[in-house]
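Write out this protein's structure.
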Amino acid sequence: MTSATQDEKRKRAASFPAEGGLAAGSTAVPGPLAVQWDSVFDRMCYMVTSADLAVRNARRYRKLMDEIIAATGCSEEEILAHGNKVRAVLFFAQDRLTKQGALNHLVGKEKFEFRLPPVSPVF
């Protein structure tokens, strides 16, 4: 692909439409983090790469994937790669916060509020 096409995809991803209230508020993810998303695109890619979503709920997977593809022009592989990158960023953020002791005060189902700035696209 040309760099102009990739640049266009990045612009479309950055301006991903916030529909269905996906942009507002924080979201609890598995583990001790309640993520405050700065990017709807990152959140959607995170959601679509949920473990076994394609198998457990194929209809929801297809709906999310088609929505992202239509809005950005990205391929399914690019979306999955970006979602996995977002998951890696969250994993390492949680690891860093654990090592710093920031999560030690959490009790029961408490979550640590974590703001995730936009993750650089992999495409």
